Amino acid sequence: MKKIGAFFRRMQAAYGRVFIRSTAYLTVLMISFSLIMAFINYRDEMQAVEDGIERAARGHAKLIAALAADKIEQNDFAPLQPLLNALASEPEVVAAKIFSASGNMIAFDSSSRETGVSPASDPIALRVVGSREPVSRRNADFTDYYLPVLREGEAVGAVLVKMSNGELQAVRGDVLLQVLVLFGILIVAVVPLGTYMMYRSTRGISRVTQAANEAAQGFLDPNMVVDANGEVGELQEAFKAMAVNLRKTIKHIEYLAHVDGVTGLPNRLKFENTAIQLIDLSPRAEGAVLFIDLDRFKMINDMHGHAVGDELLKHVAERIRSLVAEYFEPHTTSAPFVARFAGDEFVAVLPGMTDAGKLVELSEIVIEKIGRPVRVDPLSLIVRASMGIALYPQDGQVADDVLRCADMAMYRSKEDGRDQATIFNEKIREQALERQKIERHLMSALDNNELRVFYQPKIDLVSGNIIGSEALLRWTNPELGNVPPFKFVPIAEECGLMTPIGEFVLRQSLEDMNRLLAEGHDLKIAVNVAPVQFQSVYFTDRTLGILGESGFPLDRLELEITESSVMDDPARVMDQIMPIKEEGVLLAIDDFGTGYSSLNTLATMPFDTIKIDRSFIRDMAADENQRAIVQLILMMARQLKMKTVAEGIETPLQFDQLRTWGASYAQGYLWSPPVEYAAFAGMVRNGLSPSATMDATA
User: Do residues 420 and 535 share a domain?
Assistant: First the structure.
């Protein structure tokens, strides 16, 4: 068995040689070609012989039919016997027979008689008489040819001539002999000669094959020996040059695969591989992961273009790398690893640094320095950052878990006002799970009619009458109960649900106010527009469509737009709201004082009303600076001939101060919290006034 196995291994190795394989292929090709040609020749010769036999049978049958027509009609069959015997005596004719119109054999040659064939009815002869068409049948030994005997166009009988197929057997033998001779020539002369020629032609290819197999396994040999002439030698030279270039290309590809093309930092793939080495594969390792996200970076791309954005990313990435090295590296056990994770996100692994207090302290310093101006000619740009921090192994045993925790902490930094660092804790995880649950239920809240519109009365500070209301969204879920807007609205904005929800609030509030207007009440309605709604290119058209369908008087509708959404992209917001403004809709700037709007921007925009943010109203009593800010806002509004609305009024003192300082309108819990339509309609019908409310609370 060992000898047999060794023999087959030697055969397999020999077959691996190029010239042997080529010879085998050539031999198979030549044999196949020879067989095809022999088959074609065999087929042609056989067809010619078959056609000759059939022609001879047809000729004999026609002769007999011509002579037998009268005899059959006269029932005189004796003269036909010698003719049939003479025909059957020919070497290729086996038998000759004549049949009546009913298919019965009426005459046959003497040899047929000797075989004991009885004059029985022949169904084929009967069919030939009926169709008056000849029939030819062939098997391995004989060819039967039936021909109708016609007299004056009528079939009176049939003739059968049976021919021998012996000539066909002879042709088969000749073809077989030719094939054997051809194979002998191939084996004796052509195969050895072809083998030698193939060897001479392919010598040296085996070395190239070996080098290629090694290259496929990752081993490139740029020093391959060139030992052949002609094209094979050129092939060896080319392969050697290819190996050298391929080695250089692989190194370049490895660089591109692991380095970010914009910032020059390691990319996400490199970070994930490194994090696995530092965290997953090091059970006793400890340290921290930083997740850094640039705040509102998309606005820079939108305003200045991606070329400026990429240049800014490059500067910020270098700043992050140097800051991590300067502030964190002295506290780590090995060099920190900094990478660009995705878009405007950066990550860093800090091996050995587990002091949470120190991490937060240094992170705040780093965030402050990241936020310093960056010069991107001819611009001076400022970008802020939010950071999340997670520790390992306490926050996760594997890199994915630690990174996820750092990401959740980063989002908490954004929710808490951005431009700060947050270290991960279990409360953040719980809130993230709650957020996921809210998001899951919110996806179907609109379809399940769980969203409702509440109304908070808006009071004229001079007359004390209700002059309108602000439409506010509320959500009650069977499982979650009453979900506060500050929890679900940001999620709706991120999930792309704010546009349909905002359109629902607009439709519902216009429908409700139409009912009160029909009763004769003079009211206005204020509806909030979420910042993400302006990101839709269809905002203007869809809003105008809803207004047109409602039939609501447009001069009684006020759209409230937050100061931050205006300042993110003033030109785009103007383009979207001006067509609505031209239809008569009033515009209010909401949460004024919390953003970064300039007086020049405010003066050039088509706002009718300024809403003073509740944070200024809340602290007026205790903070002189807040009182001064409110007075300045009111004075500025008067100069710009704009109405003012103070929101969040809760005490009579706040009411008196704002009325004294000249505020136009107010809303707050002093009069009513946001209520359902039925309760608000009752207030309107009963003529609720702030003085009555204050008397009740006195």
Answer: no
Tokens of 96: 């000759």
Residue 369 above 90 pLDDT? yes
| 446 phi, psi to nearest 5 deg | -65, -45
Per the document, the length of the chain is: 698
30 with 121, same domain: the answer is: yes
Question: Does position 60 have pLDDT exceeding 80, yes or no?
Answer: yes
Q: How many CB atoms lie within 10 A of CB 202?
A: 20
Residue 203 lies in a domain: no
Q: What is the DSSP string of 619-672?
A: TTTT-HHHHHHHHHHHHHHHHTT-EEEEE---SHHHHHHHHHHT--EEESTTT-
Q: Which amino acid is at 620?
A: M
Distance CA 228, CA 236 (A): 8
3-state helix, strand, coil in the chain (%, to 5): 55, 20, 25
Cα(230)–Cα(459) distance, rounded to whole angstroms? 99
The count of structural domains within the chain is 4
Q: Are residues 511 and 544 in the same domain?
A: yes
Does one domain contain both 253 and 278? no
Per residue in 113-162, pLDDT (tens digit) is 444 444 567 888 888 888 888 988 888 788 888 999 888 888 888 998 88
Higher pLDDT, 328 or 118: 328
Based on the domain organization, do 241 and 332 belong to the same domain? Answer: no
Q: Is residue 72 domain-resident?
A: yes
Mean pLDDT score of the chain:
84
Q: Which of 186, 213, 339, 318 is nearest to 270 (CA)?
A: 339
Are 193 and 76 in a shared domain?
yes
Show the domain range for 249.
Answer: 209-257
Identify whether the C-beta of residue 312 lies closer than 8 Å to the C-beta of residue 383.
Answer: yes
pLDDT over 70, % of the chain: 86
**Are residues 592 and 458 both part of a single domain?**
yes
Do 389 and 467 reside in the same domain of the chain?
no
Render pLDDT for 333-364 as a digit per residue (tens, 0 to 9): 999 999 999 989 999 999 999 999 999 999 99
Which two three-digit tokens encode residue 303?
A: 């305003």
Pick the last residue of a domain from 172, 197, 222.
Answer: 197
Residue 608's CATH number:
3.20.20.450
Which range among 67-81, 269-283, 448-462, 472-486 shows the weakest confidence by mean pLDDT? 67-81
Check: CB of residue 649 under 8 Å from CB of residue 658: yes
Q: What letters, b where the CB count within 10 A reaches 16 and e where it falls short, cover 95-128?
A: bbbbbbbebebbbbbebbeeeeeeeeebeebbeb
pLDDT band at residue 644 under the 50/70/90 scheme: very high
Per-residue pLDDT at 115 = 45
Alpha-carbon gap, residue 519 to 3, rounded angstroms: 109
Side-chain-side CA neighbours of 532 within 13 Å: the count stands at: 15
